[in-house]
Amino acid sequence: MSTATTTDLYEVTMALSYLAEGMTEPATFDLFVRDLPDDRGFLVAAGLEPALDYLSGFRVTREDVEAFAAVLHRPAAELEPLLGLEFTGEVRAVPEGRIVLAGEPLLEVTAPLPQAQLVETYLLNLVSHQTMIASKAARCVLAADGRPVVDFSLRRTQGTQAGMQAARLGALVGFAGTSNVAAAVAYGLAASGTMAHSYVEVFASEEAAFRAFARSHPGPVTLLVDTYDTEQGLATAARVLRELGLGEGCAVRLDSGDLAALARRARRILDDAGLPMVRIVASGGLDEYAVDDLVGARAPIDVFAVGTRVGVSADAPYLDSAYKLVAYRGQPVMKLSSAKVTTPGPKQVFRRPGYADVIALRDEPPPPDGEPLLLPAMVDGRRVDGPSPVADARERFTADLAGLPPAARRIHHPVPPHAVFSEALTALTGRVRHHIEDDVVGTHRRPAPGEFVPGPPRGRRPEGGAP
Predict the structure, then answer these.
(1) What keywords would UniProt list here (predicted)?
(2) What is the value of pTM for the model shown?
(3) CB 198 within 8 A of CB 205
(4) What is the spatial distance between Cα 39 and Cα 408, in angstroms, rounded to a whole number?
(5) Secondary structure E strands in 42-123
(6) Number of other residues whose CB lies within 10 A of the CB of residue 457
(7) Which residues lie below 8 Å from residue 338, measured CB to CB, with a gap of 6+?
(8) 35 with 102: CB under 8 angstroms?
(9) How many other CB atoms sit within 10 Å of the CB of residue 28?
(10) Residue 45 CB: number of other CB atoms within 10 A?
(11) Which domains does the chain have, with CATH numbers?
């Protein structure tokens, strides 16, 4: 089977029905995040590169048809219309690394309706998960305030593929390295690692363990000092490093306890031993909150190793993302469900200074100070450009972060900027709403004088925080 079967069943049943009804005209879907999780001031767009790889190789095979038939308990012949279905549409997307806000389309797909429908689940999974992890990792970089951050998340991520993604996304927002060997090789990242407590435990003493490790690794070494008594471990590590003539590039790692107090003690022990160049690495359940506290306490920590809580985005493990139809056969459509109202028509997002972003219709002229965020990524089912390196995404993130308002950068209680609708999008939303209420469901009535009419007013975001 191919990745075409990695989808929700209703995508298959809808696509099959569309084909049976001859409904194959172009449809446009927006992928966006309705609201930011608590304690998030921004999101970092991620997942586009693997999404484009997926769409480029999307094709329903004979085995896929047989799998669809098996789960539907129907003869394979009835699923034949799906055979050979490929993605031939276009994608406009926010490049990876750009900072985005609630309600702004991260990706817009326009393709024959069955195609655009069948790829929904996979695209949502890729973009939602990776945007979530990249945004968490970005906050760690902010909290570290210039100190290196490395990824130690692989052993606790929810699957090894998620661990690969976490390593890549950390690098995308500026992490200095990863413990994940496969990711280091695949993405050209710096590999970073030390030793486990079990390594120390199998030797007769900490000193024996440290000396054996240094013999095996003649380059700079990092010694884990808290297997037994941390202060004794620090003194032993300092003595071994000094006697072996090691120092430059070496480090000690603290993995438990009061990291701020232990780091201060470690710094004194190392300095008194004539090893001011030996760095202090901290790990052990760290995320942006813990890193921010340690930096605020002026703990002399040189490198932060973040793992579980970042690799699974523990405090915000999902995004309220959606993939919604906004046009079919060239006609705008919208959803009116309570608290989940969408806005019709293909979009463009214009980035303005101070993140005073405008969500507009695709063909609107940009405001004088506006930069379009949605760029062509695929045309006729083919990528517009080759794969974008992680380094390019990191440059985009760094540039966007520099212009982000200070209130949105805060680790605790950030205040996210909010995009507004353009006048043209607001007007179109009103017209489509009235058409649906008058001609589709027949529920519209004219409001009484002064009566409030629900809908996204000009210059404001809709109820619920997103279009």
Answers:
(1) Glycosyltransferase, Ligase, Phosphoprotein, Pyridine nucleotide biosynthesis, Transferase
(2) 0.91
(3) no
(4) 10
(5) 43-44, 90-93, 99-100, 107-112
(6) 15
(7) none
(8) yes
(9) 26
(10) 28
(11) 3-133+319-440 (3.20.140.10), 134-311 (3.20.20.70)
